[in-house]
């Protein structure tokens, strides 16, 4: 048996087509949720952080902690494990884009419909007004386009070159679309062969290497061919030879690796600098202070110490950022317009207790200090603060977070 991957546009009736294919073929459905759960179990990352990789919008902290890239590495490993387990599988969703194009026994399907057809389905199935449905479709298409661009460097997520079949479900119909897929399953061109299974093994080895590198804070492109591993560096490196030796030392002991070659890719000559993640240093620090010049300068000083930081200027924005981007450490002023720091601290520790909060204020009293510590603040510091003292406090908070994980 072969493997089927199905990528689709929202409201293109993909669910109905997939159900008919499953009912007729006896294949087993593998959803994004199952792949995400496997990746989370393998990595120890939260499922929510793994699933966020499918979204176009990356975390504001991503350039420092490579969280999206690490999630993709573990998703690849989860997918490779599934493919090694056997055939007769149908992968539906974002994860369907993960297998490399050179695995010959995968039938790659794209199910898409015209905008008018999709709007009609949204109205019929969900009762959505046209304007609301168009907004949902546009957002989902943006996510899918960004995902495909990340994995394949292709701008059009529905490009024919990415698939064996692009089926316009609205024009073709659900039943006929399913029949076309089932018909192509009998094509000898997608039958599993020793060569195609070897490509799955290559995919698995590359995924293992990628996760090993990610665990050491590295982000490079990995390809494997019968045990020969090629690492491609796509960002400028000040000491390239040193990095190449470091990468080779990490990868060589991985089971199945016979040789390691490094190369520079097309992104190497761009201005972006290669950054290795140091997990001993905080990479998700949220600074909350209405004194804009002070907090921007503080952010720059932290970034000079390789600490990833983002800045907001009021309590409401801080709470929004905690919900959306899940910072690990917050440096919080007490006196701000609107929601004050004590109320922000109270809500954060109630709703997101794992976030460590460092109070940094120039106006607090001893009573404020006692209140903050009772509410769960990690530390209470006064302005102006010595940057080395703040750095040590941040690292201590980070150590507590890592110990908790």
TrEMBL record:
The modification 4-aspartylphosphate is found at residue 333. Pfam families: Cytidylate_kin2 (PF13189), Response_reg (PF00072). One of its GO terms (biological process) is phosphorelay signal transduction system. CDD domains: REC_YesN-like (cd17536). Residues 284-398 form the Response regulatory domain. The keyword Phosphoprotein applies. The keyword Phosphoprotein applies. Keywords: Phosphoprotein, Two-component regulatory system. This is Response regulator receiver. The lineage of its organism: Bacteria, Pseudomonadati, Thermodesulfobacteriota, Desulfovibrionia, Desulfovibrionales.
């Amino acid at each position: 048996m072969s493997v089927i991957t199905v990528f689709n546009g929202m409201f293109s009736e993909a669910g109905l087509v997939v159900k008919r294919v499953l009912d007729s073929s006896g294949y087993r459905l593998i959803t994004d949720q199952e792949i995400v759960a496997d990746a989370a179990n393998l990595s120890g990352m939260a499922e929510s952080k793994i699933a966020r990789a499918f979204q176009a919008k990356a975390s504001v902290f991503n350039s420092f902690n490579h969280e999206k890239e690490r999630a993709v590495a573990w998703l690849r490993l989860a997918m490779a494990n599934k493919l090694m387990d056997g055939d007769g599988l149908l992968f539906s969703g974002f994860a369907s884009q993960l297998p490399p194009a050179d695995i010959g026994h995968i039938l790659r399907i794209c199910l898409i419909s015209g905008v008018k057809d999709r709007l009609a389905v949204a109205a019929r199935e969900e009762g959505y007004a046209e304007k609301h449905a168009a907004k949902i479709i546009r957002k989902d298409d943006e996510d899918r386009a960004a995902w495909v661009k990340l994995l394949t460097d292709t701008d059009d997520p529905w490009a024919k070159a990415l698939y064996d079949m692009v089926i316009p479900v609205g024009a073709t119909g659900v039943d006929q679309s399913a029949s076309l897929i089932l018909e192509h399953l009998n094509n000898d061109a997608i039958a599993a062969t020793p060569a195609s299974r070897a490509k799955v093994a290559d995919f698995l080895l590359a995924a293992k290497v990628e996760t090993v590198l990610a665990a050491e804070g590295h982000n490079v492109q990995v390809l494997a061919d019968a045990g020969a591993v090629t690492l491609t560096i796509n960002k400028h490196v000040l000491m390239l030879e040193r990095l190449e030796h470091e990468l080779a030392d990490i990868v060589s002991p991985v089971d199945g690796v016979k040789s390691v070659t490094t190369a520079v890719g097309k992104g190497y000559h761009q201005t972006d600098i290669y950054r290795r993640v140091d997990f001993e240093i905080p990479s998700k620090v949220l600074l909350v202070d209405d004194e804009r010049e002070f907090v921007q300068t503080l952010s720059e000083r932290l970034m000079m110490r390789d600490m990833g930081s983002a800045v907001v200027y009021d309590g409401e924005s801080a709470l929004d950022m905690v919900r959306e981007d899940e910072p690990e450490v917050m440096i919080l002023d007490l006196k701000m317009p609107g929601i004050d720091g004590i109320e922000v601290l109270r809500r954060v520790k109630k709703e997101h207790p794992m976030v460590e909060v460092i109070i940094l204020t120039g106006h607090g009293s001893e009573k404020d200090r006692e209140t903050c510590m009772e509410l769960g603040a990690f530390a209470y510091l006064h302005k102006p603060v010595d940057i080395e003292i703040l750095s040590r406090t941040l690292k201590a908070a980070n150590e507590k977070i890592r110990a908790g994980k």
